[in-house]
């Protein structure tokens, strides 16, 4: 007869035999967590009502300990971001917003950029091992992510804070700074001895990779040790007792909790945010190839604005709660307006405006609206206010030319100089047949001399369109 199994463990089938596997402690109280927290009035209750918190652990966290801790004094919460690209993306935004809510409630927020862990590679949610990044690329990526985080936190403080508790502190750290003094022997001797293989192997991220055709390298397998030590380092040096991460980070969060509890005896807590997916159910991020970036040199304010403006009615209420700081009562009012006149898309417009202002500030939002009016509403005023860079973003594939304006230059000559129409009779016919537009107005007289204010905007630009999709941008140099 098999021996009895200790509480908290279960038998699991693995290849040709059984292994002992620890039950994840957080899942068993998911429903209790939601019902307990949603009835309260504190920070966790607010985050739960907005859908920002998905799970918490250990078992007693939601019922008693964590709410009591958050109400007792300002706490420190952290979230990690590996610099595997030079910008964060919309898939990271919900974790950032979680940190902002904690800071707005008077708690201290730490964003850890994984300068060390990026070179190891997190296997969570990955089907293959991440390609090793050169150290100089990691440094460049770290700078880009630091700038993105600081910009978003500054915008939140400027436009959305208004907290009666007073804002907590915000700190950006790089975990490479605390691994420089470690060698591999010391790390394994001091840290590795506190981890058990059965527990590490039971993690979902590890199991899915071990059972895949490619398998899993020792480097990737060790990632959870490093993330656990990150939590321990922050706990000891910054009195951090709460870690925030996406649901795909659950195993890593649990490793940190167990390591700290073993080494210090202190209770720490983990909170997860739901993963943001596309309309097809795919995780938004670099791996899926569908990333919407938070740095404007990757995704412009206009493109970010349009991404949220295009969200379907079925998702917009959820996204208003997740990605904005609009009070829930006001979200209900916006959704009521949406139901009354869905064609005007008031909910999508509010969502797009709020997210763009948080990520890119008021200037970024105004740029996005200007580009939207110029492209979709044929606004001549918006077109005149646009900068060269906005035009090039808006008409990304359009050739950009700088020309000297010669006296008497005609519509046909301007088109030919930028090679928008061919030489000869065919180009002439393209104009007379109405195939050419200048600054959103049809220009069907090839011999018409260009008129400032009509064909040449006050900012010295001309937008040519031939056919439906072929744009050309001209800057006149000698006005």
TrEMBL record:
CDD domains noted in UniProt: TyrRS_core
GO cellular component: cytosol; mitochondrial matrix
Domain of life (superkingdom): Eukaryota
Subcellular location: Mitochondrion matrix
EC number: 6.1.1.1
Keyword Cell inner membrane set for record: no
GO molecular function: ATP binding; RNA binding; tyrosine-tRNA ligase activity
Catalytic activity: tRNA(Tyr) + L-tyrosine + ATP = L-tyrosyl-tRNA(Tyr) + AMP + diphosphate + H(+)
Pfam families xrefs: tRNA-synt_1b
One of the GO BP terms on file: tyrosyl-tRNA aminoacylation
Keyword Protein biosynthesis in annotation: yes
Alphabetized UniProt keyword annotations: Aminoacyl-tRNA synthetase, ATP-binding, Ligase, Mitochondrion, Nucleotide-binding, Protein biosynthesis, RNA-binding, Transit peptide
Subunit structure: Homodimer.
Function: Catalyzes the attachment of tyrosine to tRNA(Tyr) in a two-step reaction: tyrosine is first activated by ATP to form Tyr-AMP and then transferred to the acceptor end of tRNA(Tyr).
Family: Belongs to the class-I aminoacyl-tRNA synthetase family.
Protein name per Swiss-Prot or TrEMBL: Tyrosine--tRNA ligase
Organism: Synaphobranchus kaupii (Kaup's arrowtooth eel)
Lineage: Eukaryota, Metazoa, Chordata, Craniata, Vertebrata
């Amino acid at each position: 007869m098999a021996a009895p199994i200790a509480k908290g463990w279960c038998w699991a089938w693995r290849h040709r035999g059984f292994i002992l596997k620890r039950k994840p402690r957080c899942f068993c109280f998911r429903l209790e967590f939601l019902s307990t927290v949603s009835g309260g009035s504190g920070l966790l209750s607010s985050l739960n009502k907005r859908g920002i918190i998905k799970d918490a652990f250990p078992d007693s966290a939601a019922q008693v300990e964590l709410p009591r801790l958050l109400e007792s004094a300002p706490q420190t919460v952290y979230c990690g971001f590996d610099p595997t690209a030079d910008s964060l993306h919309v898939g990271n935004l919900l974790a950032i917003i979680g940190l902002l809510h904690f800071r707005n409630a008077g708690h201290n927020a730490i964003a850890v950029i994984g300068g060390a862990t990026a070179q190891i590679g997190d296997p969570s949610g990955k089907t293959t091992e991440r390609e090793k990044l050169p150290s100089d690329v990691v440094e460049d990526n770290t700078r880009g992510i630091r700038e993105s985080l600081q910009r978003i936190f500054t915008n939140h403080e400027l436009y959305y804070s208004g907290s009666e508790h007073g804002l907590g502190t915000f700190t950006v750290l790089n975990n490479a700074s605390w691994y420089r003094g470690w060698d591999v022997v010391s790390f394994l001797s001091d840290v590795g001895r506190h981890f058990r293989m059965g527990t590490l192997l039971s993690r979902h991220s590890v199991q899915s990779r071990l059972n895949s055709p490619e398998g899993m390298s020792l480097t990737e397998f060790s990632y959870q040790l490093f993330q656990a030590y990150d939590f321990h380092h922050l706990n000891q040096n910054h009195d951090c007792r709460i870690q925030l991460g996406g649901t795909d980070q659950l195993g890593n969060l649990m490793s940190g909790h167990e390591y700290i509890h073993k080494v210090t005896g202190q209770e720490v807590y983990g909170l997860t945010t739901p993963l943001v997916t596309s309309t097809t159910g795919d995780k938004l991020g670099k791996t899926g190839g569908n990333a919407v970036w938070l740095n404007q040199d990757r995704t412009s304010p206009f493109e970010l604005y349009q991404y949220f403006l295009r969200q379907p009615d079925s998702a917009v209420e959820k996204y208003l709660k997740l990605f904005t700081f609009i009070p829930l009562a006001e979200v209900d009012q916006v959704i009521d307006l949406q139901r009354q006149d869905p064609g005007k898309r008031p909910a999508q417009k509010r969502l797009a405006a709020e997210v763009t202002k948080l990520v890119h500030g008021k200037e970024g939002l105004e740029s996005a609206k200007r580009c939207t009016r110029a492209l979709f509403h044929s606004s001549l005023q918006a077109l005149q206010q646009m900068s060269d860079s906005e035009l090039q973003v808006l008409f990304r594939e359009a050739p950009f030319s700088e020309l000297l304006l010669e006296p008497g230059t005609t519509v046909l000559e301007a088109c030919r100089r930028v090679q928008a129409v061919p030489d000869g009779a065919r180009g002439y016919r393209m104009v007379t047949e109405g195939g050419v537009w200048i600054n959103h107005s049809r220009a069907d007289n090839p011999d018409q001399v260009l008129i400032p204010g009509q064909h040449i905007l006050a900012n010295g630009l001309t937008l040519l369109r031939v056919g439906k999709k072929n744009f050309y941008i001209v800057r006149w140099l000698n006005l």
